[in-house]
Design a protein that fits this description.
3 helices; about 130 residues; single chain; rod-shaped; alpha+beta; 3-stranded antiparallel β-sheet
Length: about 130
């Protein structure tokens, strides 16, 4: 879905508000694209096992070095699980960083829930 900027209004306050909304829409789009491309990696067994996950937590890749096969089945399985957990933690941190522009724009640390209309300078209600 393509986003079309709103044409300028004759009221300067409305024009500022519409411009702000256009900027926020562009920012949300960019952050969404960044999140979609975010990956996290985790290693275990001294780097013999590496797992990569997407921002949704979906397994994106597993690399097992040949020397890892000498660990035995149980230890290798545990190494894969450990690497996957580390990859999940890594992608969560990267996603948090990718959301930084939205948090900075909000003006608080509530993840975008400041209660004043999203921190865009426009007050809603009384």
């Amino acid at each position: 879905m393509a986003y079309e900027p709103v044409p300028a209004a004759k009221d300067p306050d409305l024009t500022r508000m519409m411009t702000s909304l256009d900027e926020q829409a562009a920012l949300f789009g960019q952050v969404g694209r960044d999140l979609a491309e975010t990956r996290g990696t985790g290693e275990a067994a001294g780097g013999l096992v590496t797992v990569e996950v997407s921002s949704s937590g979906t397994l994106a890749g597993v690399r097992i070095e040949p020397d890892a096969l000498s660990l035995g089945a149980d230890a290798l399985a545990q190494a894969v699980v450990s690497a996957a957990k580390l990859a999940e933690q890594d992608v969560a941190e990267r996603a948090h960083q990718a959301l930084g522009p939205l948090r900075a724009n909000d003006g608080d640390d509530n993840g975008g829930t400041s209660g004043n209309g999203g921190g865009n300078g426009v007050q809603y209600g009384g």
